[in-house]
């Protein structure tokens, strides 16, 4: 059951009401603040909630270095690795996702994360695997048949 995930995006301007309103599953959303600064978004869905926490810009480069290192360990195909590293090099925002849902809504939560990632043209880190915007696993346990 997904409880945590991360979505890496190159264009933070995509993350707004236009995108969230286009995803029919999102019933409502509100901004989160910390120390009077925007720190994320709280999404409400029929099956639960997803908090999208903005990784602070001062921590982003270290966070991305960890993702690059992980990608180098789990992506075996050279072309796929080059592609993934290129995508990572363009990331400008990371959304740390905290997912709350009932066990019987695991499939709905997963589908939503993949849909949101697709809408944001991002890379999704879920279940120790890196997924592309189309839901295809690039590396990690999900690539094992």
User: Can you give the mean pLDDT?
Assistant: 93
What is the tally of helical segments?
4
Which strands sit side by side, in order, in the main sheet?
2-3-4-5-1-6-7-8
Largest sheet: 8 strands, antiparallel
The string of secondary-structure elements, in order, is EHEEEHHEHEEE
Write down the overall geometry. globular
Q: What is the number of E strands? A: 8
Question: How many structural units, i.e. domains?
Answer: 1
Through-space gap between termini: 20 Å
Kindly estimate the percentage of residues that lie in beta strands according to DSSP: 25-35%
Radius of gyration, in Å, reads 15 Å
Helix/strand-derived category reads alpha+beta
Low-confidence stretches: none
Q: Provide the helix percentage.
A: 25-40%
Descriptors:
34% helix; eight-stranded antiparallel sheet; 145 residues; alpha+beta; 4 helices
Describe this structure in words.
The chain is globular. With 145 residues, the protein is of the alpha+beta class. The chain has four helices and eight strands; from the N terminus they run βαβββααβαβββ. Strand 2 and strand 3 (37-45) form a beta hairpin. The chain has one domain. It has helices spanning 17-22, 57-74, 78-89, 106-119; strands at 4-9, 26-34, 37-45, 48-54, 93-101, 123-126, 129-131, 137-139. It starts with a strand and ends in a 6-residue tail after the last strand.
